[in-house]
Amino acid sequence: MENNKDMNLWDLCVKTVQALINLIKACGRFLAEMLRVIYRRWWIVGIVMLVAIVCALYYSRTDNLRYEVNAVVYLNGPSAQDVERAYLALNSSLHREGYTRQYVGETLGLTPAEAHRLCRFETFRVIDNLNNGTADYIDWSHSNNGTDTLHVQMPDRLVLQFECRNLAAVENIEKGIMAYLNGKQQFIDEFSAYKAHKERQLFFDQMQIEKLDTLTSRMYSQAGHPQIQSSTWDLTMGKQEITLPIEDIEEYFDRKLLRDRRYMLCSAPVTLQDRFIADGNPINNRRKVLAIAIVAALILGSGLGYAIENFKRFMTFLKKHD
User: Fold this and answer.
1) Exposed, middle or buried, 172 (CB in 10 Å: 0-12/13-18/19+)?
2) Which of 20, 71, 227, 229 holds its CA 20 to 30 A away from the CA of 246?
3) Any idea where the domains of the chain sit in the sequence?
4) What is the pLDDT of residue 227?
């Protein structure tokens, strides 16, 4: 039985290798046929190549270069889903029937020329791997579905992206986007509630620190008693040892520091972590577009030449049997 299994496995390996060899041979024959057609029908391939290069150069001209511009924003009250919905509504308006870029430009307070340069709006989630409030990476591929308990989507961070054809207008587009998001009444109401909640948290932390500090001071004031011995963290009262709440005070200080920092950033419903930053490498840069155009022209030109050759043969076959 073992020999039969070994032979079956060996046969499977042999057939797999043979299939790979046949595939390589087929690719070789295809490339050889393509080269033959290109050599015999060079004028067809040349015309297609010329048209493709002209189209590529026109598409990648300087005033048509498309850039991606990104920014990370803090959400102070509004949920990430609501901000995404409001932001992506701009993208829907760009491609919805009956709407124009001018309509989006009016919504963002842009001039018609600046609005004409807008191409696309997109959002991406910020992922926290340890669920400790620290941003670890951006989900550029939209692979996180929101139910992952290990890689958690941060509820108060979001990446806003837009695509435009004029980097000179980025600053005005940034101002328009922030004014559009921060002008929504729903977001303003949620921001007011969020800010009041942060103020109550800070007040609570301060009160806890003062209470713990008062308790520690009282314990230290009793350290001169003959039956009380003190150390850095502990007090020994007779046979009873009491741990001072120094670590609790430090923990509250650290927590208050983080909340103070977050409260300082809480100046509007949606605030920028930094400015909108443009990717210096355009999406349709000339080298990439030309490379794609040349490969496509070779495939299309050789395919067209092959079709013409077969068409002539087919017509000749019909004439012989007429």
Assistant:
1) middle
2) 227
3) 2-61+289-320, 63-188+269-278, 194-264
4) 44
